[in-house]
Design brief:
By secondary structure, the protein is mainly beta. Helices cover 7% and strands 55% of the residues. It has a 14-stranded antiparallel beta sheet with strand order 8-7-6-5-4-3-2-1-15-14-13-12-11-16. The protein has a two-stranded antiparallel ribbon with strand order 9-10.
Length: 237
């Protein structure tokens, strides 16, 4: 989701650091994460910054809560890109997900693309997940994770619900090795993965507990985009 947003736009919390690396604890808890498990992994809020060639261009926030027995996840991203005196671009993305036992119950997405507004709504029904975007409606599997990255179960998925298109995007996840991050609390090594297939240019990072630590990709103009927790820096590997 983030990669596609920034590509379209450009066109052109306390950090828990493990002492040693182990493969992310995906098991089925990653897929069926409860509100209690999500809060234990992330806390109530995680804040990220979006960088382009070393310059901050926006923020991304994830919030986790329990609502009527469901896991609620709120994602909010803002981008502001300015070039000289002729280009002043604003983008805002808001998504709210409601989960129960690893299955998406409801999704609401609102996008303000520099004044152009779009929305996606999804609702679980007996036949599956009914997804509505503008005048188009489609049915998808209720077992799909979303492209908001917080659930490490995405690393075992073959397709995900793209929260910008309202369609299913294919994956072919590949493990690439270790990525070194640096924060005020010290150095952290996380595992780097490439999502592949329809998200082929998206590299994403998870620690041994399955916690998401950000992502990196190339924009259309070949600039490098990184999404990192606030106060964290990454090597160039």
């Amino acid at each position: 989701m983030l990669a596609k947003i920034v590509k379209v736009v450009l066109g052109i919390g306390c950090l828990m650091i493990p002492l040693a690396w182990a493969e992310p604890t995906l098991h089925r808890a990653g897929l069926s994460m409860t509100a209690e498990e999500a809060l234990a992994l992330y806390g109530q809020e995680q804040n990220f910054e979006v960088w382009r060639n070393g310059r901050a261009i926006g923020t991304h926030q994830l919030r986790f809560s329990e609502e009527n027995g469901l896991l609620r996840v709120d994602a909010h991203m803002r981008l502001h890109i300015r070039a000289l005196a002729v280009f002043n671009y604003h983008y805002e993305y808001r998504a709210t997900e409601w989960w129960q036992e690893g299955r998406l119950q409801r999704l609401s997405v609102e996008v303000n693309d520099d004044g152009k507004r779009e929305s996606i709504q999804a609702q679980a029904e007996d036949q599956g997940l009914r997804v509505q975007k503008a005048q188009q409606q489609r049915w998808l599997s209720q077992d799909l994770l979303t492209t908001n990255h917080w659930n490490p179960g995405i690393l075992e998925a073959q397709e995900v619900l793209n929260t910008l298109t309202g369609e299913a995007s294919q994956l072919a996840v590949e493990r690439l090795g270790m990525k070194r991050l640096q924060s005020t609390q010290g150095e952290l090594e996380v595992q780097k993965y490439r999502l592949g297939a329809e998200l082929e240019d998206t590299d994403t990072w998870y620690d041994a507990q399955g916690r998401w630590w950000g992502m990196e990709f190339s924009a259309r103009d070949k600039s490098r985009i990184r999404v990192l927790p606030k106060g964290v820096e990454a090597d160039n590997g």
